[in-house]
Amino acid sequence: MRPVHVGICGLGTVGSGTVNLLQRNSALISSRANCDITITQIGARRDNPNCDTAGLPVVADIFAVAKNPEIDIVVELIGGTTVARDLVMTALEHGKHVVTANKALIAEHGMEIFAYAESRNLIVAFEAAVAGGIPIIKGLREGLSGNRINWLAGIINGTTNFILSEMAGKGREFSDVLKEAQAKGYAEADPTFDVEGIDAAHKLVILASLAFAIPLDTINIFTDGITKLQPQDVSYASELGYAVKHLGIARQTAEGVEVRVHPTLVPKSCLIADVDGVLNAVMISADAVGKTMFYGPGAGSAPTASSVVADIVDVARTMNNAPESWVPALGVNVNNLKKLPVLDIQDIETSFYMRFSALDKPGVLSSITKIMADASISIEAIIQREQPATEEYVNVIILTSVTRESALDEAVARIEALATVRDSVNFIRVEHLD
Ligand code: HSE
């Protein structure tokens, strides 16, 4: 087999990890690909002290890499969705296969990119785009190809999971932990993408598309981050037997698909509740296999490089076969994807955790339980602590049974309107994942 020439664009956290891994495990990787894999050119504006590029041709112009006639595979690791899109399209125009770790690019421009690649018989591989080092794309697309997927739920942002774990376990401050995540190369260039759930939404769109053979579409995704989460809710949840995790959830229902990202209470007895730090995990419920969980490092230089290199090996092995035998990027060819309605958050059905502050006097709780009964929402658990006589208000915590979010919203509005309730009602969705 002739050697495969790789061009790497971007020498940041993932780019430097990829160069290091390709060099360190060169013989092993080439034997697995059944051909020599060589780094022919690197496109980067500046060197990265975390990797040794001595002896490798580095150019500042990444587009020179995309057009280099010697290169077979262009690896896009620059991030962002503007220049990265142009780079990938240029590489495809010039007949290169593409490997990328860029979830925002795939979520936002994947349909255009995959359609163009398919029309030109080129491969676009993106294992590293979701859950860093976990082979979730191949696991879902190839490993579960015989299954109908019921739902998936994942911790798919390492930074938020790291922040939540450090806050819950060590009582550390949000901003302090975020700084550490940035220093360790976990966080996005703009960390609001992590903490506001945008990064997780990009990844979830990709997983939902693979799971349900629907087009990539970021428009209707309900996205909420962890910035409004209060430590007292983490502690009440714990008392009730739940951990608070930032989850991406995709579920097929009779009415369409739910695709949503938000903080979620999960029972402590559920495996995913124990996934801490920068680790990610994706649970998948499917009709033949039942429930599976894919678990591992979701961010960082070497783990993400592990997925990038796996894609390079895959492309190197596959590119000499007939295109009809290739696995389509989204599991089915772009033309065979079918649009399904994405449910509005008001139409989802789940359980809820509620917390509000109510006057500590007779009849208050009964007026609240009446509102819940009127909305046909059953109360599964309730906490109200004895208070010192000097405290006028008391925290009330309620766990509900499964209900439609629109019904919960109506009950919340009525509770907030009570003169005996102070401020707003905080609520967090609860998933039992069974
Ligand atoms: N910022 C991302 C995370 C990097 O924290 O998970 C991996 O996609």
Notes on the protein architecture:
The protein is an alpha/beta fold and 434 residues long. It has three domains: 166 residues, Rossmann fold (3-Layer(aba) Sandwich), CATH 3.40.50; 155 residues, 2-Layer Sandwich (Dihydrodipicolinate Reductase, domain 2); 83 residues, Alpha-Beta Plaits, CATH 3.30.70. Helices cover 36% and strands 26% of the residues. The strands form two sheets. Strands 7, 8, 9, 10, 11, 12, 13, 14, 15, 16 and 17 form an eleven-stranded mixed sheet that branches. It has a six-stranded parallel sheet with strand order 3-2-1-4-5-6, with helices on both faces. Strand 9 and strand 10 form a beta hairpin. It starts with a strand and ends with a strand. The mean pLDDT is 96. Bound molecules: L-homoserine. L-homoserine binds next to helix 7.
Q: Which SSEs are present, and which pair or pack?
A:
Blueprint: E1 4-9, H1 13-24, H2 26-33, E2 37-43, E3 58-59, H3 62-67, E4 73-76, H4 83-93, E5 97-100, H5 103-119, E6 124-125, H6 136-143, E7 149-155, H7 158-170, H8 174-183, H9 192-195, H10 198-212, E8 222-223, H11 231-239, E9 242-253, E10 256-267, E11 279-286, E12 290-297, H12 301-318, E13 349-359, H13 364-374, E14 379-384, E15 393-400, E16 403-404, H14 405-417, E17 421-430
Parallel strand pairs: 1-2, 1-4, 2-3, 4-5, 5-6, 8-10, 10-17
Antiparallel strand pairs: 7-9, 7-11, 9-10, 11-12, 13-15, 13-16, 13-17, 14-15
The chain binds L-homoserine.
The site of L-homoserine has 11 residues, from helix 7.
